[in-house]
Write a structure and sequence with these properties.
This protein is of the alpha/beta class and about 575 residues long. The protein is built from 16 helices and 14 strands. Strands 10-9-8-12-13-14 form a 6-stranded mixed beta sheet, with helices on both faces. A hairpin with a 4-residue loop joins strand 2 and strand 3. Helix 1 packs across helix 2, helix 3 packs across helix 8 and helix 7 runs antiparallel to helix 8. It is elongated and about 105 Å long. InterPro entries: vWFA_dom_sf. This is VWA domain-containing protein.
Length: about 575
């Protein structure tokens, strides 16, 4: 049979893996085989050196499948493989694809070469079997296409030996026909796409001619519909294959690498032939295209991947916050120009906002009504009469005549407020209002009854500067200047998220961005992703735009508010903060 189907006299490979994880891996692969092969008698071995000198092999008489463990990617520990989760299989896609291919052999390679069959016709029939069983597998299980594409490159290179200088395909009709059966036939079976094999198809046309290639294609398309147990039809199509190529079906096929006087120039033992080069290039194209295929998944894997992505994003945010608000921040790389004492109006605004936040944080008391068989509580006459009647009847009383009402005060949810202010030259009118708003918010958070935390950063000129820090109440107002471009909005959002836990849905959260939004693409795109992540967790995002700005371009999905007066910045932020607090339950 083929290199993937062992001969009846073949014995499984004696494999003694050094790692015990290979045994558990083999068992776990074997647990999933019944669903793929529709057989429950198969034994699977996955280990380095298995496969019977092929990437994988099926032993029909022993109902065994072997997969060479070298196809498990580097970095994947066999002990961690969990193939019962569909989403986990993409970590070792090639190995799983090889297993799927051999399961297709186990289910569909039922026919055997009859005794006395012409050797040439039998060899051609066995060659056509490779694409036939994959076509049959995809008709039965279309979802296996992703895995078969993942292993196609390994199978093609192993069967054609295109990377072996001593046995690579030459410019002969026999080698061209074999390559067509292994590559072009997989297009008609539904595994590969025509554009992926375009280069090798051009070379094959040059060797075989259009008419011969069309006749071969007609044969393998018909073979794809042959029944699994129809050995007579398979041998007959093998005979036709030989006749189309002009070879004797009663003679065994020549050994690979044997001289052929009819070969085209470019074969020989020197550099790889154009056919071998085309096969190698096609295999690389298939590998590249298959990497872009959407991988099947499952709810458990999706949840695990989402949790891992969230943990990574959270760790990155904490790291960014440490760099921005930590003690190691350089005092020389900053937007700060000085400080000033707050005015009486600013102190009054802070007290007014603190009262507003306290009011917004007040929640109605919850009322819970319970019943019981004994006091305390209000006695209900109907319940008492029911209990008395039950006792008089000799039954165990189940009535609960006492009713009690419990009222509890609901604590105000915490408030976390982050402000990111653009300090490039187009926002210079907002320097003083934002500095004032940062101080007002920090003091309001300190004096309100609501557990509130605020932080303010400026971004521009490629750096971030903390103006107010989480949990700190500055005595003086910090002033800052403006500079040129370098809108590191992504770093600013990430630093505020890490410092204030804006992505944790356990508080009222508000992110305020004061900018015209005229950012560079290299910072806008990651900034948009960070904003989308915050909004997905329930964090409100308020974007304050300058009135009449010609370059106003806020990010997507935010609440826009145009400031006609820069002095109204603090009031707009305070109103948004109280609204976020009221809407949080």
């Amino acid at each position: 049979m083929t290199a993937h189907i062992a001969l009846p006299a073949a014995t499984p490979t004696a494999v003694f893996p050094a790692k015990p994880g290979w045994l558990s891996l083999s068992a776990r692969f074997g647990d999933e085989v019944p669903a793929i092969a529709d057989r429950d008698d198969l034994v699977v071995t996955v280990a380095p050196g298995a496969g019977h000198d092929a990437p994988a092999c099926f032993f029909p008489d022993l109902a065994a499948i072997e997969v060479d463990g070298i196809h498990l990617p580097q970095g994947v520990d066999p002990a961690t493989v969990e193939p019962h989760r569909v989403g986990d299989r993409k970590r070792y896609r090639t190995a799983w694809g090889l297993l799927t291919h051999e399961c297709a052999h186990a289910q569909h390679s039922v026919w055997r070469v009859p005794p006395g069959a012409p050797p040439g016709a039998a060899a051609a029939a066995i060659l056509l079997e490779e694409s036939r069983i994959e076509a049959a597998q995809l008709r039965r299980r279309p979802q296996d296409r992703y895995w078969l594409r993942g292993s196609a490159t390994n199978l093609i290179l192993a069967d054609t030996r295109a990377n072996d200088p001593a046995a690579a395909p030459t410019m002969t009709k026999q080698d061209a026909a074999q390559s067509a059966a292994l590559l072009l036939a997989r297009v008609d079976s539904g595994v590969l796409n025509r554009r992926e094999v375009a280069r090798v198809e051009r070379v094959l046309r040059g060797i075989l001619g259009d008419d011969t290639l069309a006749q071969l294609r007609a044969i393998w398309r018909t073979v794809h519909r042959v029944a699994d147990d129809n050995a007579t039809a398979m041998i007959e199509f093998g005979r036709r294959w030989c006749e189309v190529l002009g070879v004797d079906p009663d003679q065994p096929p020549p050994d690979r690498g044997a001289a052929d006087p009819g070969a085209q120039p470019g074969s020989g033992n020197g550099a790889p032939s154009p056919l071998a080069q085309a096969i190698a290039a096609t295999a690389a194209a298939i590998l590249h295209a298959a990497a872009d295929d959407p991988a099947p998944t499952d709810p458990v894997t999706e949840a695990m991947e989402a949790r891992a992505a969230e943990d990574a994003a959270r760790a990155s945010a904490v790291s960014a916050a440490g760099k921005t608000f930590g003690t190691g921040t350089s005092p020389y790389v900053t937007h700060i120009t000085g400080t000033r004492p707050p005015t009486t109006a600013e102190r009054a605004a802070a007290r007014h906002l603190a009262r507003a936040l306290t009011t917004a944080g007040v929640r109605d008391r919850t009322t819970t009504r319970t019943t019981s068989a004994i006091p305390p509580g209000r006695l209900r006459v109907r319940g008492a009469m029911t209990a008395a009647a039950q006792r008089a009847a000799g039954a165990i009383p189940t009535a609960e005549p006492f009713t009690r009402t419990t009222r509890k005060t609901v604590p105000a949810p915490p408030l976390r407020l982050g402000i990111a202010c653009d300090v490039t030259d187009s926002m210079k009118e907002y320097r003083k209002p934002v500095a004032s708003a940062a101080w007002i918010l920090a003091h309001a958070a300190h004096h309100t009854d609501v557990p509130a935390t605020t932080a303010t950063v400026t971004f521009g000129s490629g750096r971030i500067t903390p103006i107010t820090r989480p949990g700190a109440t500055p005595a003086r107002i910090t002033e800052f200047g403006t500079g040129l471009s370098g809108h590191v909005i992504d770093d600013a959002i990430e630093a505020l998220d890490g410092a204030l836990d804006l992505s944790c849905p356990n508080a009222a959260r508000l992110l305020v961005v004061i900018s015209d939004g005229d950012f560079e693409d290299e910072t806008r795109e990651p900034g948009q992703r960070l904003l989308d992540r915050l909004r997905a967790t329930g964090c409100a995002v308020l974007w304050l735009l300058p009135d009449g700005g010609p370059w106003n371009r806020p990010m997507d999905g935010v609440t826009n508010h145009t400031l006609t007066d820069p002095a109204a910045t603090a009031r707009a932020i305070g109103q948004a903060a109280t609204a976020a607090l009221r809407s949080t339950r």
